[in-house]
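dude i think i finally got it to work??
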Amino acid sequence: MYAIIETGGKQYRVQNGDQIVVEKLGVEAGETVVFDKVLVVGEGEGVKVGAPYVEGTTVEGKVVENGKGKKVIIFKYKAKKDYRKKQGHRQPYTLVEITAIGGAKAAPAAKVEEPKQEEAVVEEVKPAKKPSLKSMKKAQLIEFAKENNIELDEKATNAVMIETIEAALK
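look at this
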């Protein structure tokens, strides 16, 4: 099932488990956010289209992180007038993971039942969730590499460190 939601003046197509980058919301990391401006919800034959919004339908998400995007340089000048102005801007954003669409919660992780005496215990290995490397500082990248036993040149730039870590995680 998917939904199209509106937030921050933009529209996003989302499904359970998707992570989307939206305009900054006034919510701390780890908290739940509810999007009530749902334009379309459903799948296949059961699609509901709102006019403009679908009544009584919401999309819930969990805030993963708040951060700032890449720097954009604004440079203004007027020819032959000795006027130059350089300015930078980093757009704030919120990374949200979608947990429920229209009341349908995301499938919870499989519960491990207590083993019987005769049966062997088999633990499920969950794939390591890849963190947002681009938002990490140099010290955090080095620490992450050490935790995952990845050899890293500590004098390298952040971009080189991120490439090395991504190559090692694949």
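The first strand starts at residue 2 and ends at 7.
im so relieved honestly
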